[in-house]
Amino acid sequence: MTYVSVVVDNNTNATDELYTYRWDLTGTEPSAGCKVTVPFSIHDRKTEGYVARILDEPPAGVKRFKDVLEAFPGEGLTSEAMETALWMKNRYVCRYIEAVKCFLPGNTQAKRKTKDPFAGIEAAPEEPKQLNADQQSALAEIAEAIESRQNRNFLLFGVTGSGKTEMYLQAMESVLQQGRAGIVLVPEISLTPQTVSRFMARFGKERIAVLHSKLTPAQKSVEYGKIRRGEVDLVIGARSAVFAPFDKLGLIVIDEEHESSYKSESGAKYDAMEVAMKRAKAHGAVLVLGSATPSAQDFYRSEQGIFRRLELPQRYNRVPLPRVRTVDMREEVKAGNRSLFSQALTDALEKTLGEKKQAILFLNRRGYSSFVSCRECGYVPRCPECGISLTYHKEEGALVCHYCGRKETVPRVCPTCKSKIIGRFGAGTEQVEEKAKELFPEAKIERLDLDTVRKKGSLEGILKRFAAGKTDILIGTQLVAKGLDIANVALVGIISADVTLNIPDYRSGERTFQLVTQAAGRAGRGDEQGEVIIQTYSPESAVVQAAAAQDYRAFYEREIGIREAALYPPFSDLFRFVLWDEDEAKAMDSASRTAAWLKKVLSKDYIVMGPSAAPIARQSGMSRYQVIVKAPAGKRRECTAAAAKLRRVFEEEKTAAKLLTTDINPFSFI
């Protein structure tokens, strides 16, 4: 008799375990990942599930078993996908079903007639480009691993405009010629059409599927169907595309590998790069991580030999990297210029427009003003649900919470001191757009941020107009700092390099360096050297100076020293436990008990920090307190086991806070 352990489709902590059933279905052999229906609970409710493992012997001590009712061999997960899901369950301390559902499309009953996800994407057929010497040398190593079907991990460290995408294309061609499949991940959905266009031009639309969170359930179901039936051998998409159900993977590419969007912050809270490494190893596939500004953690891994580092130190066309000027905005104020635009940036914009070139203005803060405040008593309107300051949006004439979306009217009178002097502080992209239109009324100016792309198709329209030269100045948040490859962009202005520098997060310096460098990299991608102007109130910052010099090594050496001294990744793993409850005292008490419990069960090698209020102390109407544990490198397993046990203890504790969430190596502590 054969037995199977099953992950039951019931997403609660109480049912987060494997259930054993007897397999007595004639004519059907069990396989790991197979979708089944089983009788579940004392009422034997017919419930869907997924075979986790096949057992020759039942668990000791159990004598009576329910039978699997039905099996659907063509549905569910591949055996490799199920093995990866079980690994995710342990690595990220998530529920079994949360990990399993990462590999599923969701609504599998969706009708086949759906809108084409390729609609509006154009691509004329193109031939492979001639590689320069640096590219040829790097590609030779990748191609050798592909040819020999070795599992190898490469970090492709190439300056902006060095031709990394062409290398992805040529490496993918080698894989597809072998009859194997490939996955290409991009950090933003906004970059998917651009990447799809490049791959369509080389391989044709019929070989490609697209996967990302903006697809409707029906679209996603259709794309998954094409992959499972073997109709396509290449998937392009954002983070979730790493779960594409291929059974013959040869190559996974993660472009802009440093981006925080590759880390999920809900559900299984997985790291797409780690999942890609796991899947590539299982398939004997090659993993290529590409970036001009690798995360300090991954560059360290390349120094340690975990990744093989391949370098592209020059732009593909040998045009020098853009000239960079740093403007001290404190001096501008002293000179009487209180505008958002320094004199240097204003002059450069006039010159760029006069030469019929295009410009990008980057500010990683949307809205009109970052906050509103009473100038007499200092009162700042905050979201009652989330506890953070509300951002003023001029177009809507409202204060908006950037976390929950709550909107409130701007107070005419301070509710605290009754003063009528209510001021707006800190500029956002909306205000930059307004000032740019005042300075250059004849120019065609557009804004690209989360506020302007809410309407379906607006993102693609803005990018298409800019690429076609119909927009003179594009203003935006980090959406404009990534992946845009437009030859006519001669100038990039970084309105404030300080926005991300003082965020309460150990990665704030790294993020600032990456954003400034990546934004600067949009300039001069044609035949002429571009220009970048960085406006800052902290020109003495080592991070800003390294970014201005486009000197990754200087940034890295300083950053990795700070990380080692403070025991931050890659020298540790960070475990963040957040306790949520409507009652602040209850959340705080649970956090205190969590910290005490962790100190008791963990050895002295671990550093337990907290409890403390989370940086966003309230969210979704609940108070939030956190405890953070630093697990020294190589000692993650003990803390992972403790985190899993803590969930069970928390579940049994009737006086605990309403919710406990666990995040391992989070990319945000907000």
Please tell me about this protein's structure.
With about 675 residues, the chain is of the alpha/beta class. The chain has 5 domains: about 1-100, GIY-YIG endonuclease, CATH 3.40.1440; about 135-310, P-loop containing nucleotide triphosphate hydrolases (Rossmann fold), CATH 3.40.50; about 325-365 and about 430-560, 3-Layer(aba) Sandwich (Rossmann fold), CATH 3.40.50; about 370-425, no CATH class; about 570-665, Alpha-Beta Plaits (2-Layer Sandwich). The strands form 6 sheets. The protein has a 7-stranded parallel β-sheet, sandwiched between helices. α12 (about 460-465) links the parallel β20 and β21 (about 475). The two termini are about 50 Å apart.
Per CATH, what is the topology of the largest domain?
Rossmann fold
Strand content: 15-25%
Largest pleated sheet:
7 strands, parallel
Helix content: 25-40%
**Low-confidence runs (pLDDT<50, min 5 residues)?**
none
CATH architecture of the largest domain: 3-Layer(aba) Sandwich
Task: Measure the end-to-end span.
Answer: 52 Å
Envelope shape: globular
Total strands: the figure is: 27
CATH superfamily of the largest domain: P-loop containing nucleotide triphosphate hydrolases
Strand order of the largest sheet: 8-9-7-10-11-6-12
Structural class: alpha/beta
Query: For the CA atoms, what is the radius of gyration?
Result: 26 Å
Number of helices: 17
Average pLDDT figure: 89
Our count of domains comes out at: 5
Q: What is the level 1 CATH name of the largest domain?
A: Alpha Beta
